[in-house]
Design brief:
By secondary structure, the protein is an alpha/beta fold. The protein has a seven-stranded mixed beta sheet with strand order 5-4-1-6-11-8-12. A six-stranded mixed beta sheet has the order 16-19-22-25-29-28. A five-stranded parallel beta sheet has the order 14-17-20-23-26, with no helix packed on it. A hairpin with a 5-residue loop joins strand 28 and strand 29.
Length: 406
């Protein structure tokens, strides 16, 4: 069944809630975890699941994403029918951009028809998780499903942000509500709701037929959750696949995060610093692949004041130099420099960030190429921070790429 599956990875969203990190890049291309991009998690899942035909549907500010796909993911052999191929809007259905998740796929129907595949796996490129898609495809086959939707339970108060699913005793979907004001509780736990993860398996013939039908539907928003799935319930066999269920080859940590806001992105990074991280990046048989450039090892050295470089409970990438400064509970991407008596606490520093002597940052996300001058503090004065930078609801300060201090 793996050989008969075409994977479509949706990676064209604007990601406005993750600004300023998405001002110059698509959300799936945002750096994560000290060495990865967000999209690396879905692509690594494809790699380990044996899926070798992947179309990445790009759109918004896609150069950074396409460059990353070239540098990190040019590993399949086209002569064997294997590929990870970016697909920007082709304007084959009129002079318009992708408008909704279903529309993005519908505008590329010609690629689905020529793929000679019996099944389509549809994924989002902006979630952090590990999952064996092969197990979901096996579930789809065993149930004789027309459509299978990956699902998980979330607290009831969070379910309004998701598509909420109701199932019968056989895991067959009997109701699908997109972002309801009053989510239906899960039968197994009245404090939780069963929600869609935005991961779908379709029989290809049905998908093509329904996308063509949706293109003609008056008033459709061309979205899988809002339009396609609710219309199919009762007409075809739709089943809910429980995330973290049995049969997968990856350890069942059941970790899945939508990192669509600054706070969600920040929390997911900080999760990696827990003594027992809820997401295990160190499982050797299911490693997350990213772009690995040749850089020197990270190091700590004494500063001019005689202070030792100190690193406590942090993830530090290659090329980092801590020259007499202190780094605590933080994530540093390659080529970060922390100067003498500088302090980094509870922060995420992207590639090439430099902190001059005695600079201090706390609860910050600092994008690429920023140089924090000597003695400057960020994250200590909420009013001053809000005047210069974007600050999240929880008080995380986001410094945009290339910001220059006056």
């Amino acid at each position: 069944m793996i050989d008969q599956t075409l994977t479509l990875l949706l990676a064209g969203g604007v990601g406005s809630r993750l600004s300023p990190l998405t001002r110059e890049r698509a959300k799936p291309a945002v750096p994560f975890g000290g060495k990865y991009r967000i999209i690396d998690f879905a692509l690594s899942n494809c790699l380990h699941s044996g899926l070798r035909r992947v179309l990445v549907l790009t759109q918004y500010k896609s150069f950074s994403l396409q460059k990353h796909l070239r540098d990190a993911w040019s590993l399949f052999n086209p002569e064997l029918g294997e590929y990870i191929t970016p697909v920007p809007p082709q304007m084959r259905k009129g002079e318009r951009w992708y408008a909704g998740t279903a529309d993005a796929v519908a505008q590329n129907l010609y690629l689905l028809e020529r793929a000679d595949a019996k099944h389509a796996l549809i994924l989002s490129g902006d979630h952090i998780y590990r999952m064996d898609y092969a197990a979901m495809l096996a579930f789809h086959r065993e149930r004789g499903a027309a459509v299978t939707v990956a699902c998980m339970e979330v607290p009831l108060e969070e379910a309004q942000a998701f598509g909420v699913i109701a199932v019968d005793g056989e895991q067959r979907i009997v109701e699908f509500q997109e972002k309801p004001a009053e989510p239906r509780p899960s039968p197994s736990d009245p404090d939780k709701a069963l929600v869609s993860m935005g991961i779908y398996v379709f029989d290809m013939a049905l998908l093509i037929r329904e996308l063509e039908r949706d293109q003609e539907a008056i008033g459709s928003s061309h979205d899988f959750g809002k339009d396609i799935l609710p219309r199919l319930i009762g007409e075809y066999g739709l089943y809910a696949y429980p995330f973290g269920g049995t049969g997968g080859r990856v350890s069942q940590d059941r970790y899945w995060r939508d990192v669509g806001t600054l706070d969600a992105y920040y929390r997911a990074n900080m999760d990696l610093l827990e003594p027992m991280p809820p997401l295990d990046l160190y499982q050797p048989e299911w490693g997350i692949r990213g772009y690995c450039r040749t850089v020197p090892p990270a190091r700590t050295v004494p500063g001019a004041s005689g202070s030792e470089g100190i690193c406590i409970n942090a993830m530090v990438a290659g090329g980092v130099v801590i020259a007499g400064g202190t780094v605590q509970h933080s994530i540093l991407f390659p080529h970060v420099y922390v100067g003498d008596e500088a302090q980094v606490e509870d922060s995420i520093l992207f590639e090439g960030v430099r902190l001059a002597d005695r600079a201090r940052v706390r609860r910050c996300i600092i994008d690429k190429g920023v140089e924090v001058p000597a003695g400057v503090s960020i994250g200590y004065d909420p009013q001053a921070d809000a005047e210069r930078f974007e600050v999240s609801e929880s008080g995380v300060v986001a410094v945009p790429k290339g910001y220059r201090f006056e």
